[in-house]
Amino acid sequence: MKSNILKLGALTVASFFAVASMTTTANAVELTAPGLLDPTTEEMTEAGAYKKEGPWTIGMSFPGLGNTWIVQMVQETQYTAANNDQIEEFIFTEAGWAPAKQVADLEDLIARKVDAIIVAPMAPASVKKQVDAAIAAGILVTTYGSSEGVLNSAVELNLGGKAFGKAGGEWLKEKLDGKGTIWAFRGIAGVNEETLRYEGLTEALEGTEIEIGAEVFGDWNYTKGKQLCENLVLSGQPVDAIWFSGADMTRACIDVFKDVGKPLVPMTGEGNNGFLRIWTENDLDSVAPIYTPSIGPALVRATVALLEGETLNKSYYSDPAPITNETLGDYYREDLNDAFWVTSALPEDEISKNFAR
Amino acid sequence: MTVMAKNSPATARSHLASASRFVLNLPFAYVGTALLLLFAYFTRPMLLSPLLLLLIVRQAAPLGIAVIGQSICMRVLSLDLSIGGVVVAVSYILTSGALPFSGPVLIAICILFGLLVGATNAFFITRMRASSVIVTLAMAMILTGVVISLGQFHAPGDAPEVLKFIGQKRLGIFPIALFVWLAVVIPAALFLRFSVFGRYVDAIGANPNAAWASGIPYVRVVTIVHILSSLFAVFSGLLLVGFVGVGSMDIGGDLALNSLAAVILGGITFGGGKGGVLGPAMAAFMLTFSFNLLTSLGLGEPGKLMIQGAIIAVAAMIYASRRNK
Amino acid sequence: MAERTEANAQDRPGGPARPIVEFVDVTKRFGSTTALGNVSISGSSGTVHAVTGENGAGKSTLMNLLTGVHRLDGGEIRLRGKPVTLHSPKDARAHRISTIFQELTLLPNLTVAENMFLGREPRRMGLVNRPEMRRLAEKALARLGINIPPQTYCSALSVGEQQMVEIAKGIAADAEIFILDEPTAALNAPEVEKLAELIFTMKAEGKLIFYISHRLEEIFRFCDEVSVLKDGRHVATHPVAELDREKLVSLMVGRELGELFPQRVPQQDPQTMLSIKGLTTNPFPPKVSFELAKGEILGLAGLEGQGQRAIIRAIAGIDPPISGRVEKTGDDPAQPISVRPTIVAVSQAGIGFIPEDRKIEGLYLPLSIRQNMALGMLREQSLWRPARIKRDEIETLLAQMRVAHADPRQPVGALSGGNQQKVMIGRWLASGVNVLLVEEPTRGVDVGAKAEIYSLLREFSDAGGAVLITSSELTEVLGLCDRILVVREGALIAEFDGPAATEELVMNAALTGTHENQELEGAA
Amino acid sequence: MSWLNILRFPGRSGLGIVPIGVPIVMFIFISFASPNFLNVQNLSNVNAQIAALLIVALGQMIVAICGGIDLSVGSVLSLTSAIIVSVDPALAVPLALLAGLVVGVVNGVGVTIFAVHPLVMTLATLTFLQGLALLILPVPGGDVPDYLEAMVDFSFLGLPAAFFWCLVFATAAAVVLRSTRFGLRIFAVGANEDNAARNGVNVVLHRISSYVLCSFGGVMAGLFLSARVASADATMGAHYGLESVTAIALGGVLLAGGIGSVPGVIAGTIALGLMTNGMNLIGVSPFVRAAATGLLLLTAISLQPRKAIGA
Q1: Quick count: other Cβ atoms within 10 Å of Cβ C478?
Q2: Which residue among D188, D199, D259 places its CB closest to the CB of C89?
Q3: What's the number of domains chain B is made of?
Q4: Could you check whether A2-160+292-320 and A162-287 share the same CATH topology?
Q5: Residues of A with CB below 8 A from B250's CB?
Q6: Out of D113, D126, D294, whose CB is closest to B142?
Q7: D230/A112 Cβ within 8 A
Q8: Looking at the predicted structure, is the pLDDT value of residue D270 above 60?
Q9: Which own/partner contact pairs does B292-296 have at CB distance under 8 Å and 24+ positions apart?
Q10: Domain that holds residue B68
Q11: Which range, of A261-265, B178-182, B301-305, C484-488, averages the lowest pLDDT?
């Protein structure tokens, strides 16, 4: 099915989503564009268990803001919610990356007697009490990420993590023929997603002769990534390839290599338009795992489906094939700016309105 | 005393003593930079390549510019914690696309905005006699809060080309940011050194009551100081945004506290100090160099933070206790 | 009077009573200056021992050694015959020494009772026993016959009341040795009477009181013995009964008063420089109007705290007046210019203000002498311009003023008090103002520097300037001023021609004068 | 003294119309704006949400009354969180307290003996301790000792545990300020250290002790917060330094020293708590919160002018 759609050629991601949703109506509930999200368990929710009469109030608790990916995800989520006339109110809260604030946010959402809560826990254990309280209060809870069984939410939608890191790792392994020295640019120290991605990398490298020569935390941030990369490049650390836990850092590092006139080495990226642009313009050799912002809309749709009394699988996972040199042209949007992330669930006019260059 | 010293056998020793006194009287940043360079020479000589040093200079430039404003604030016994907020706002103005203007116009708007923020800070500090810590802290909260609420549905776009050019390109091996830095530091240093304004800044720092009682335009000077500080923050933000190339909401977040550290390391204390404008500039370089050194030593974030904290504490203790003797 | 001699007589038989406090060859240095050199003084129980001398003679330094504020550099202090080391005020208190400081040390955010027992709060079960504290405070206040509720915050008290509380605090300490440092500075006449009673009671109880003052009348009234200090040296100690006024003054001063002051030159055609119209200031409702003429030194005299300070500070714009106007004559005498009552506008109009406390409000101590002087030159320059400093002018001025200094680049804080005072005045001379408002022109300055400062001010006025001074030293006002205005409760109640005025005339007016607005005060 | 009189003559409490009025106005406003505000569950949520901040702010108040400021208290909170999941549960609390003591002494010694400006000194310790906390606990998580979780999870007489935490610390702080020699003397030190010293108060000792008490507040808040979120996080306290300064400033505590009170700090903390809770309940964008807090702070401080201009 995936290859089917790719045959459509240079269609934009969004229109491809539109086409896809028209052509595939087999499943009862369509959470995202097909191929983006697959069930990971046979276990289903009980039909009608969460059914409520609309209109609903839905709350979402997110750890915090900080980068353009999150902005786009939130934007898509709010757009999806706003365009569902059964959703009377959609309350978005963000905790500024403070676990205690997230607990407070959840408590407040429960106090507001919302019909459903979408939670993206900073640490599953820290919100367990509140999730249980919500469920006890008859509130439907869906989770972004995998709580590994800690949370009793109805449905979990997960993405990225180990698969993200592994995709890059596997590609590097292939590029380097199993030996060499790489640098690892990690994200924010201590963040769960970051640790998982890194574990994915180490798993991929297991049994090879590839060595991690330098390992730095660039906070997924262009500025910091650039400084760190300049530093590593100029301090003469050997490097055959670079693994990145996020695309902004790849962009930064490419800029550094170009700046000092050092020949580029294979670098992994991410499905971000800014990165895809550099990739395209410079004829790089790269790979970009997709960490889709449409996870947000998917969470809203899943929540709505459950409130409508539909049945869903208990958990899903998003693991689309990464963007490669071959498929790059399908994803890159020359007309959009660097802040755009593939793949989006927004309709085309919204995309071009928000992300015009 | 000098006459006695001349022909005595202790001459050499007294030369040494006065030399060491001279060194000890220098702002910590000079000594610290020398020590760091020496340490790098033995552990990571690669860091001393001219190319990398120049890149570190470029990395240091935004902090180096912001620190000028912070240092004048501290010299008049005030403080500006709103620098980070101003930078975030500048990033928003330049990259949000909410204002449909060309790059130069946006830059002009940023400068006007800086004037406004500085004047507002100054109003509360001088007219309302509110604590500058609180006022500028509140200002930072307001600016970041407003920017984030405005920006939450709009991913920031690219920086104006002219800024990208300034922030990223170089002339020969010299980054343009270095020239921008110099173009700001040198006039600022000269102005503070030789103008009536600079004298008044020294006077207010040395004794605010006396400055008040002797008819120095205290309120005006403090107002100008805060406006200047916000303007330097704007320049710092322009450079940062140009360097990054795209807007970002966590840009410049550590600028306020880092600038505070750089001012101390640069020999400025509340109400004076010997560092002038160059001491803090050197300190901005020193801090940035230390981040790079620590990274290349493979010390993780924890180690970096600990060493950074320890350096600030030790420098402040040495400097403050010496001043009080 | 009779009572006092009796008390003395009791001590005398069998030689002098055993002293409980002995200063033996005490020396105290501050940096390079010797504040006290080899001073030996002793005091016995049941006496009031005056320590006197001019400002800066070392009275307060000597007492601060006993209160533990300063440490000795040489010699020793013996208490009840035993040498002691006093490291802190706490130590002093443990030795039953209680101090009533000249500066008010009350904390504005503490109540009267809390202030009185700060540092030795009564406790019960580890916690502060507030009822007990209040009771003890009431008792001590009652002894002084003052009616201030102990629960009042000290910020709400007048200066006089604060001084009384300060005294009550010292008394409540249940000490044997009391140091009263200029206790009457802020007191009005009835309060001084209460203090007098108290001193006699304490003496009768066998306490030793060191009474620090340069007010001769008080020394003769309260004290049994008097020790005179001069320039940090012990001049003499005598029973008060053996001295008269002239003798004491000559011990203190060591020269004739006359030569201190420069010659007054009568002005031929006095032209008004500054006119004050209907000025009212914060604590004092009466309206004040007067004029200051070119070439004139005008003095505001009166008891301390009667409003001189408020008037001069209102004119200077430090504490802007409630109402009233200040006009200054510019180039055209017919067109006086109204001056806005803010300090910046006042200074721009060519009026300089020299505050009484040079360390707090006057000088920039960390800055160099040259920088301090240079700041005056910037008065009329634009903020944005390069500072035009004429270094040679500064050098000339420093030489003219005979400022004893090694290098104009040395910090002004390293100078002696007199030289600092000269630099402070010099700054205004360099600034080109033609009216000076001077608070306490010679506070904390030695006699030599005094004479020089007086002639500086006189030269300034002779050169076409005008000077308004306030001073708590009556001799200064009498000797220096061309005209004297006496202030009482914020009103001008008398005017004297300088050469014609005498101490008695001025004091009389200051103590008893009335003004037409007195009913206003009664209503309030 | 009657209630009205206290508002008119706040003495050294700093309790004017503003500190008391702000939370009351907010309370009334939110009650009308949100139907869910005035229910027991929500009010007990608010209580739990502000408890940690209150404990930190009480410590900050003591430092501020004594004329200082402590930005590092947030890092102490983080460090505590890191310590308690990284050592033997029996040692957790004593070790955290020991760490608090050391930090307080270092801050105090730097500020008093080395005469470093408190902002600079505590900024340095803030940075150092943040690093140390991350070193001990690089990845959030870990198991908070059960006894600690039990201490934040009980309810008694229908009142939540957080209420008792607040009660205990507020009472303790009030007793310290009102009825101990230490409490009385820090007011003196904060108002004028020279005069306090002349009256026999050991200024250095009191200053250092105030920093130790503040760090102690950080430790206690760290225990509470870690137990509340049932896991540790080495950046948990990052916001608390500035937030506590905001809370005490709203509560009428004078940062220059000498003025402040426990009721004021409670009021300031409640105001901040109501701000967050109210915005979540009313549905105001959470990003507005920071801006609104800043505005509130500016307004509050403009109504309490000081004598001096500057920091």
Answers
A1: 22
A2: D199
A3: 1
A4: yes
A5: 66-67, 221
A6: D294
A7: no
A8: yes
A9: B292/A227, B292/A231, B292/B47, B292/B52, B292/B56, B292/B59, B293/B36, B293/B39, B293/B40, B293/B43, B293/B44, B293/B47, B295/A216, B295/A227, B295/A228, B295/A231, B295/A232, B296/A231, B296/A232, B296/A235, B296/A237, B296/B44, B296/B46, B296/B47
A10: 30-323
A11: B301-305
Residue C3, pLDDT score: 42
Q: Which pLDDT score is estimated for A33?
A: 72
Provide the shortest C-alpha distance from residue B222 to chain D (in Å).
9
Instruction: State residue C472's pLDDT score.
Output: 76
pLDDT score, position A23: 38
Sign of CA dihedral C43, C45, C49, C51: positive
Class of domain A2-160+292-320: alpha beta
Could you give the 3-state DSSP secondary structure of residue C80?
Answer: coil
- Measured between CB atoms, does A99 come within 8 Å of chain D? yes
Chain A: partners with 3+ C-beta pairs within 8 Å: B, D
Domain ranges of chain C: 2-253, 271-523
Instruction: Indicate if the pLDDT at residue A8 is higher than 70.
Output: no
Cβ pair B145:D290 closer than 8 A: yes
Domain positions in chain A are: 2-160+292-320, 162-287
Closest to A227 in 3D by CA, of C164, C201, B52:
B52
- The reply to whether B19 touches chain C by the CB within 8 Å rule is no
The domains of chain D, with CATH numbers, are: 43-302 (1.10.3470)
Q: Which residue of B has its CA nearest to A77?
A: B153
Question: Nearest-CA neighbor of C264 among C233, C224, C241, C297?
Answer: C297
What is the CATH number for B314? Answer: 1.10.3470
Q: Is the pLDDT of residue B36 over 50?
A: yes
- Interface predicted TM-score (ipTM) over 0.85: no
Q: Give the nearest partner residue to D280 out of A89, A93, A189, using CB atoms.
A: A93
ω into A268 cis (within 30 of 0): no
CATH number (3.20.20.70, 3.30.450.20, 2.60.40.420, 3.40.50.300) of C2-253 reads 3.40.50.300
| CATH architecture designation of domain A162-287 | 3-Layer(aba) Sandwich (3.40)
Least Cα separation, residue D258 to chain C (angstroms): 7
Rounded CA separation C97/D133 (Å): 51
* E-assigned strand segments in C3-114: 19-30, 33-44, 48-52, 74-79, 82-84, 97-100
Has residue B102 been placed in a domain?
A: yes
The domain C271-523 belongs to what CATH superfamily? P-loop containing nucleotide triphosphate hydrolases (3.40.50.300)
Angle between helices D288-302 and D240-250 (to 10 degrees): 40
Which alpha helices (DSSP H) does chain B contain, by range?
A: 2-7, 11-25, 28-43, 50-75, 83-95, 103-122, 132-151, 161-168, 176-194, 196-206, 208-213, 218-244, 255-265, 278-296, 301-323
**D140, A123: Cβ pair inside 8 Å?**
yes
CB contact under 8 A, C128 and D195: no
Q: Is B8 a member of any domain? A: no
Say which residues have a Cβ less than 8 Å from residue C296's Cβ, sequence separation at least 6.
Answer: C267, C270, C273, C461, C466, C467, C482, C483
Whether B9 is covered by a domain: the verdict is no
Are D66 and D206 within 8 A, CB to CB? yes
- Cis? peptide before A55, omega within 30° of 0: yes
Of C109, C119, C126, the CB nearest to D199: C119
Report the C-alpha gap between B9 and A95 in whole angstroms. 70
pLDDT confidence of B238, banded at 50, 70, 90? Answer: very high
Closest CA to C408 of C423, C421, C418: C423
- Across C231-342, the runs of DSSP E, i.e. the strands, are 233-239, 272-280, 288-293, 297-301, 323-328, 337-339
- The pair phi, psi for residue C429, each rounded to 5°, is -65, -40
